[in-house]
Amino acid sequence: MSSLLFSAFTFEAYLNHVGNIVIPFWNELDRLPYYKKLNVITTHIGITPDASKRPYQTIKSLFRFRNSIAHGRSQILAPDPRITDIHDNLSNYGKPTTEWEDYCSIDNVNTAINDVQQIITDIHKAYLKRHPPQRFPIYNPSFKVKVHHTFQYTPLKVF
């Protein structure tokens, strides 16, 4: 559960990070839902996401999960008395579960992590195409360190 939640948090934090860089009036958009923020950013940098396919389809499911946890509601659940396979674990026989409980699987965790990373990578690449980094390393003589712009896990601001 926590990996799924942190994947959603990571994605929205990245949207806020990028939005603040590429959209001068981002503070006015800060309260928008994630999908509207994503739309503003991708339109601005020239990406056309397809919400019906991965990785963007995953984000929709991930935020439905996140919202069901963040805005919990009481539910009345009825047991499902059907056995779907004779080899099912009978200790869970008839145990009702919520949609968010069903979403908590290692497969969904792996998909969410990979798809969030893919979208972040796509946004970052598209941003760098429009705003290329400096073509030379930046040198700071007081620290005797050469800092090169690297792709992964680097802020979008060019120093």
Describe, in plain words, how this protein is organized in 3D.
The protein has helices at 2-22, 34-45, 56-70, 99-103, 106-130; strands spanning 138-140, 145-147. With 159 residues, it is mainly α. Helix 1 (2-22) packs across helix 3 and helix 3 (56-70) packs across helix 5. Mean pLDDT is 79; it is low at 135-155.
By helix and strand content, what is the structural category?
mainly alpha
Could you give the order of the helices and strands? HHHHHEE
The termini sit apart by 37 Å
> Which stretches are poorly predicted, pLDDT < 50 over at least 5 residues?
135-155
Radius of gyration: 21 Å
Quaternary structure annotation = single chain
Helix content: 40-55%
Q: How much is the average pLDDT?
A: 79
Principal-axis shape equals: elongated
Strand content: under 5%
Output the strand order for the largest sheet: 1-2
Biggest sheet, open or closed, and with what strands and sense? 2 strands, antiparallel
Count helical runs: 5
Write down how many β-strands occur, each being a DSSP E stretch of 2 or more residues: 2
Provide a compact summary of the structure.
The chain has 159 residues and is mainly alpha-helical. It is built from five helices and two strands.
Key traits:
159 residues; mainly alpha; elongated
Q: In terms of topology, how is this protein built?
A:
Blueprint: H1 2-22, H2 34-45, H3 56-70, H4 99-103, H5 106-130, E1 138-140, E2 145-147
Antiparallel strand pairs: 1-2
Helix pairs in contact: 1-2, 1-3, 1-5, 3-5
